[in-house]
Amino acid sequence: MTRILIVDDSRQSQFFLKSIIETDSNLSVVATIASAANAEMYCLGRTVDLILMDICTADNASGLVAAKKIKENYPEIRVIMVTSMPEHSFLGKAREAGCEGFWYKEYGEEDILTVIHQVMEGKKVFPKETPAISVGLAKSTEFTEREYEVVQMLADGLSRQEIADRLDISPRTVRFYIEELKTKTGHEDTMKMVADFVEQKLIINNLI
Predict the structure, then answer these.
(1) Mean of the per-residue pLDDT values for the chain?
(2) So what's the pLDDT on residue 108?
């Protein structure tokens, strides 16, 4: 029997995941909690084999931060990150945290039960890439990591000079990246372009 902890601040998502899991007699949901900040504490003194961990949870607690701590202290517990947000850096951060799997609620190619069984068999199950979401005239897969970095810093309120200092490049190069982003997306206004990235959940302000 695989004992599963669901960490998700949406009651609808909790119910959805629990109802699917309970169709499999080899799986059991031991608890559902809203905040990733409480996930590690729950594992203390309790038997948990697998955690389905949402990335953005109650109390602004990061599921990615919680997953990393759990993998460091309870390496035997397997973690599958679960999200509806196609944010560009989530996949890489989940791998860095030591998670065994990743599943998009709305874009997953495989159903969650398949992902759970593959992970419990010892496999690493990650999508090949983030979902292709439209940003103006472009698709999210058309942007480089550096372009995403620039947009993230603009979303966080940094000036061109501050971005240049952070990335160790010139303000002129920052301007080049911004103009290239505007050309790709078709946006003439920089802030509207940044707002489009945020609205599509490809960029999240002050993400840890």
Answers:
(1) 91
(2) 61
